[in-house]
Specification:
Arc Repressor Mutant, subunit A, mainly alpha, 72% helix, 3 strands, 2 domains
């Protein structure tokens, strides 16, 4: 066993737990961790071997991670296989994905709040108060997330 193997295994495990805590699959976190750890792009076969999983679920996870902009498919000369590596901006992209969810929640609150305006129904009035709180909460999150993104981009440009 090489000196870096225990760290790799811990990283894979911890990313799996973190992704699971965010409501995603452990396997998604395992793939991300493995690709962050790997100095070279890995083929689908490499990933399945490293994680001891079958090709079908790994292929689906890689497609989903690619769609989310966290990893990308790359080609190696003289190989017909697909290889994967992390996107260079993986952490800011993951943050942006969460920001998009926050924006969606703000939009949900706005749209539902508009439907409760002007009603005399007691249940809808109570719902309207809760939706006002929801809207304010997510608007504040949007403001802070945008400030963070602006600060991060400034730091990256230095």
């Amino acid at each position: 066993m090489t000196p870096h193997e225990p760290i790799k295994h811990e990283m894979i495990h911890r990313f799996g737990e973190a992704y699971h805590a965010f409501g995603m699959s452990h396997l998604m976190g395992y793939v991300v961790a493995l690709l962050i750890f790997s100095p070279e792009p890995l083929s689908l076969d490499d990933i399945t071997t490293e994680l001891g999983r079958s090709k079908g679920p790994i292929s689906q996870i890689c497609r989903r991670l690619t769609d989310r902009g966290l990893i990308r498919k790359v080609w190696k000369p003289n190989s017909r296989k697909d290889y994967y590596e992390i996107q260079p901006e993986i952490f800011s992209r993951a943050f942006q994905n969460n920001f998009d969810l926050i924006k969606n929640n703000t939009q949900i609150a706005r749209e539902l709040l508009a439907q409760t305006n002007g009603t005399n129904d007691a249940t809808l009035k109570m719902l309207g108060k809760r939706l006002v709180e929801m809207k304010r909460f997510y608007e504040m999150m949007e403001k802070h997330f945008q400030n963070f993104i602006d600060e991060w981009e400034l730091e990256q440009s230095e």
